Amino acid sequence: MHTPIALLLELGIILAVLSLLGTVARRFALSPVPLYLLAGLALGDGGLAPVPAARDFVDTGAAIGVILLLLVLGLDFTVREFTVSLRRHRSSAVIDLVLNAAPGAVAGWLLGLDAGGILALAGATYVSSSGIVARLLGDLRRLGNRETPAVLSVLVVEDFVMAAYLPLLAVVASGGTWWQALLAVAAAMTAVTAAIAVSWRWSQHVGRILSHPDAEQVLLRVLGITLIVAALAEIIHVSAAVGAFLIGLALTGTAADRARAVLSPLRDLFAAVFFLALGLTVDPGDLLPMLPAAAALAVVTAATKVAAGWYAARREGAGRRGRLRAGTALIARGEFSVVIIGLAAPAQGRLAALVTTYVMLLAVCGPVLTRFAPTRQAAPRPPAPRDRAGGRPPHEVSAAGPLPAPPRPGSGRDAAGPD
Amino acid sequence: MDVNEVLLPGVGLRYEFVNHEGDRIGVVAQRSGDFELVVYPGDDPDEAHPILRLTSQEADTLAEILGAPRIAERFADLTREVPGLSAGQVEVRPGSPFADRALGDTRARTRTGASIVAIVRGEDVIASPGPGQTLRAGDILVVIGTREGIAGVQRIVQG
């Protein structure tokens, strides 16, 4: 087999650079997404260092990246969480949708975009980044706070709205007629309902097909089925990403836990490639003219997100500080806005530049604002380093070992039951 | 004691209770298996004061330390002391859907409330099997729980 040296070298350098950027971002408790986009800009046409040999791989990897992003997102959510969220926060979800989609739609109209462009921009300003926000709340140690369930409920509903929105966008952006779009949404909704029914009634059987003691088997089966379903979804003009999301929703319980554990590293790799690829398609020269519009849009939609979060947290009975914390937590936009542009961009060069700038602004400013939102106690401690393997002095090892044996076999240690 | 359960969509669950001294205590059980312990200053659950974070392994160790002495003392007479609690045996038959699969796959405790405390395999006894323990045809599972719970485990394991 011929080894493509240029491809290996370019890809290796790209991954090493991404790792460096990721470390820098994590150091400041920020999302690496905007840095990956910047890296893509630097590598693309008109950038500093073009990478012709790795381009094909990055393009293919980006397609897989979207599918993995949505698959793992679907794995993360359960139907119960969705129904509970919707019951408690139906009005918050409506307010969130109206307040945050409207500025995007108006901006799209002012910029003279077509229906697909307006719809895409409305979606990009509507959807917060559940990935960034959930991680941020954990890092800032706010999972115990009263406003947190409200924030997470809004995110869950947003992510489910995406399941109906993405097929709609896919059709409208490709110039389809309105009845085609409605048909696609109906098909997607039917598929969502079917996926939920399947996971509800036959979760044991679905789990049995896809679970295996061997991690390799789980990876191959889940990924294989997901790619097939994604391709089928693309054939019937429902976006491949939505097909992947459905597979994620259909998998529940232990099967979902296994799949998430096996797929997450792969998702991280290909998602990084996806953000990189989006940066590649945008000419850095187009960004600067878009900066004023993006900044204005960012300011307006940051304010509307704060209002939506304020309302949701008030429904949970949180005080003023809590409401402000909830509002600022929702500001961050990220992977989903980028996915939306990935779907709509081929037809809309200007839109991609606008949303890329917008996401870069808010993915950086959102977490910073959240961090400095008012709390009573002193600033939270930075997250402890997770990886302490090998760093443990020998005398501590015994502390991690089992306790002295209980008097009889099987007595005690109930905690090690079959869960 | 009342334990309040709060759903954290996409993240996990939070349990809240007030101890005998009036401290409001929260335990965040994350889907990843990690735990976070918080207290709420005063009576206001708005702002949690973080105490510590535990990996699932550390949480197990803590639970053992807190629960072990009591459980070890009482377990022997548990089935006699507690009305409604009993011990039973469930055989993994050759046709069982869980033969050659991990014990955790049965999700028996989650679904029935009954715990599998030991596996008898021929001459051997596997005490306190973990969720990763593979079941084999012919194993006898020792189950502790309510009568319905044990019957439920039987239904699950024998398919």
TrEMBL record, chain A:
InterPro entries attached to this UniProt entry: Cation/H_exchanger_TM, Na+/solute_symporter_sf
Entry keyword set: Membrane, Transmembrane, Transmembrane helix, Transport
GO biological process annotation, one example: proton transmembrane transport
Cell location: Membrane
GO cellular-component term (any): membrane
TM regions (residue ranges): 6-23, 60-79, 91-111, 117-138, 150-172, 178-198, 218-236, 288-312, 324-345, 351-373
Span list, region Disordered: 376-419
Family to which this protein belongs: Belongs to the monovalent cation:proton antiporter 2 (CPA2) transporter (TC 2.A.37) family.
Xref: PANTHER family: CONSERVED INTEGRAL MEMBRANE TRANSPORT PROTEIN-RELATED, SODIUM/HYDROGEN EXCHANGER FAMILY/TRKA DOMAIN PROTEIN
Name of the protein this chain belongs to: Cation:proton antiporter
UniProtKB/TrEMBL annotation, chain B:
Cited PROSITE patterns: RCK_C
Residue ranges of domain RCK C-terminal in the record: 73-159
Gene Ontology MF terms: monoatomic cation transmembrane transporter activity
Matches recorded under InterPro entries: AAE_transporter (IPR050144), KhtT (IPR026278), KhtT-like_N (IPR058776), RCK_C (IPR006037), RCK_C_sf (IPR036721)
GO BP, sorted A to Z: potassium ion transport
Top-rank taxon, per record: Bacteria
Name by which UniProt lists this protein: Potassium transporter TrkA
Native species: Streptomyces marianii
